[in-house]
Every structure is written in structure tokens, then in C-alpha cells.
């Protein structure tokens, strides 16, 4: 049990994208909440139409939750919560691992990308997509940062990497997600504080223009109460970003 929500994971082999198949499952009246965990994806997607490389060996999961289950305090920062629960899941498997977050949706180790999250909705349900590299770090072909894997992090930490697998990781993400969603004492301010504390503020950031990176070098300064990121520019001035994605 995860804070009253029994684990409900559907495991499949290759799909186009777990986001699309999860929507079809809702249309076919699959019991929600559920998680769809795929072995690989032919058309995995990131934000803004970018591709998510999805070879076998990694975790490709969409958790579908009725919108009505998510409290008003959590809803505006749900994309940040998605990153927080992924980090918590990895750190439960590899205690003390140096796992950080990059606003708004990346999970990072030593400046390399372990995974990313993508939140979509259909008006009544939320679809929380999570891709995490467990065993395979695909080459990154655009201006994104290099990829790493949870197995690499485990080995560096002296944890047997074969003890970390996609199914187990998905179950931990599920538990951390529903623990947060069902905590009726949690506030938006607290979730923002947690994300701020988990950010790697030493990273050099760039705006994304499609597959290109913007020239200006930015650094993360702080989150505001809505979880928007204030960055510092090379001339020392600050700007608050709302819907931008960063490389
Ligand atoms: C994300 O997008 O980081 C969100 C990724 C969400 C993927 C999951 S998998 C399950 C579910 N089903 C889907 O179809 N999607 C979700 P974004 O921040 O836009 O990052 C995309 C960028 O990450 C690309 O442009 C590359 O630079 C880089 N990238 C692509 N595949 C990668 C990988 N496997 N590991 C690390 N970096 C990758």
C-alpha cells in the first residue's frame, strides 16, 4: 500500500510512447490511478516536441492520476513534485547518492542527465511521464547535456547495480508520489522549498530554442512562491522564468 493507494503497475514491452498508451487506457476505462511501465519506446517524447531516447534497459513510465485526487496546494507545482519524487526514489535505492534537480524537469548527477519528467492532462486526468536511464545512457544528439545512468551512480556508490531495476524504481516513484499527494498537511511553499534545496545551482544553463541552446549563460538563483525560477545573467541582472525550458 502507498498511503492508501495500492500499487497498480501495468508492464508492457515496446510502445510508441507511454503518454499516448496511457491516454488510450483511460479511454478504455482502465482502473485509475495506474502506472504504465514500458520496456522501450519507439516514439518517446520530451517537452516541446523533443525526442526521448528510449532503448531497452531503462525506465519509461506514465503515472495516470485523476485531477480530483491532487490537492490545490500540490497542483500548481506538480511538475516540480515529479522531479522530487524521482530523486527520492533514486536516493532510497542509493543512499547518499549525489542526485540533484535542474529546473523545471531534469534529474541530474554530476552535470549529466539521469532522466526527465513530462506532465500532461486531458482535462480530467493527469499523465505524469517519467524517463530514467537505469542501465543505458543513450548518446544525446542535440545541444542537451550528456546522459548518465542509475547503474553508474550505484557502482560509484558501492551499491550492486543489479539490485536496481525499472520495475522497482517505478514502484518507489509511485509510493513517493502518492505519499506527497495524500499528505494533506503539505503546502506549496514547502514543495517549492524542497525543490529549491534539491537544485544543482552550480550548473551552467542555457535557454532552449528548439534543439539549439541560447547563447546567454544563466545560473539558477532561487525559486519564487509559485516555483518559477529566477536566473542570473552574465551582466549580473536577474530574470524570472515561467514556462522556459533550459539546456
Ligand atoms: C524530458 O524532456 O526530460 C522529459 C522526458 C520524459 C520521458 C518520459 S519516458 C515515459 C514518458 N513517455 C514519453 O514519451 N515521455 C515520457 P526534455 O526536458 O524536453 O528533454 C529532452 C532532451 O533530453 C532531449 O532534447 C535530449 O537533449 C535529452 N535526452 C533525450 N533522451 C535522453 C535520455 N534517454 N537520457 C538523457 N537525456 C536525453
From TrEMBL:
Keywords: Ligase. InterPro entries: aa-tRNA-synth_II/BPL/LPL (IPR045864), Biotin_CoA_COase_ligase (IPR004408), BPL_LPL_catalytic (IPR004143). The keyword Ligase applies. One of its GO terms (cellular component) is cytoplasm. GO terms for molecular function: biotin--[biotin carboxyl-carrier protein] ligase activity. Residues 2-185 form the BPL/LPL catalytic domain. Pfam families: BPL_LplA_LipB. Belongs to the biotin--protein ligase family. This is Biotin/lipoate protein ligase.
